[in-house]
Write a structure and sequence with these properties.
Blueprint: H1 3-43, H2 46-77, H3 81-114, H4 120-146, H5 149-179, H6 184-216
Helix pairs in contact: 1-2, 1-3, 1-4, 2-3, 3-6, 4-5, 4-6, 5-6
């Protein structure tokens, strides 16, 4: 191997390490945002909700930096095959993780509008959804760090649970409004919160699918 080739390989590895680090930070911040948003909802903490909305700009900035580095790496290193696949997956993953942050922000936006009027049963069910999607984000980012396709597959299984909880919540909330029409506005906010959590689960599944594709070159089974 020539010195020039070694230099190119080392430079590409350095670029990829930086990109992976940024995506890991995005995932960590998105996970923290979901946790904080659910805590703010549970405790009607408007200050925390405001902080989540402000901090979402950091995730946006990280996504922009990933995009810049991916484009630069493709232009300068001319990667082929597996390397190019990982770069394209990183680009897509950053966009998906940014959307997860947006959904957490959307939940936080509803906190000031809730006035603390949330039935305990609804809080329990939404809390369960929140716990699962946070677990999914953590699993997906672990799978990315470890290049673990089995862990990536496990993420999609958890998403089925989130989808079912969302359906159950919809039925429960509609029944609640029938009996308590004066609380229709609060229930509408809860339905949107549940939908945001369901979308976080879907986007985290997309991340898992990209990890699987990066490592195998194939689509995740039953994806």
């Amino acid at each position: 191997m020539t010195t020039g080739t070694k230099h190119t390989i080392t430079a590409f590895d350095d670029d990829m390490d930086e990109i992976r680090g940024l995506i890991a930070e995005m995932g960590s911040r998105a996970e923290a945002a979901v946790i904080a948003a659910m805590k703010a909802l549970r405790e009607h903490d408007t200050d925390t909700a405001a902080t989540i909305r402000a901090d979402d700009k950091i995730i946006d900035t990280l996504e922009t930096e990933v995009e810049r580095l991916v484009v630069r790496t493709i232009a300068l290193r001319a990667p082929m095959a597996d390397d190019l696949r990982e770069l394209i997956a990183a680009l897509k993953m950053s966009a998906v993780i940014e959307r997860i942050g947006d959904y957490a922000k959307n939940i936080a936006k509803r906190v000031p509008q809730m006035n603390g009027k949330i039935p305990s049963s609804a809080l329990e069910q939404l809390g369960r959804m929140g716990e699962i999607v946070v677990e999914m984000i953590r699993m997906a980012m672990d799978a990315y760090a470890k290049r673990d396709v089995d862990l990536a597959c496990a993420v999609t299984v958890r998403d089925d649970v989130v989808d079912q909880l969302n359906k159950d919540l919809f039925v429960d909330f509609v029944a609640y409004v029938v009996k308590n029409p004066q609380n229709a506005t609060e229930v509408a906010h809860l339905l949107f919160t549940a939908k945001n959590l369901e979308r976080i689960g879907d986007h985290t599944t997309n991340v898992a699918q990209m990890i699987y594709f990066t490592e195998t070159g194939e689509n995740l089974p039953d994806a």
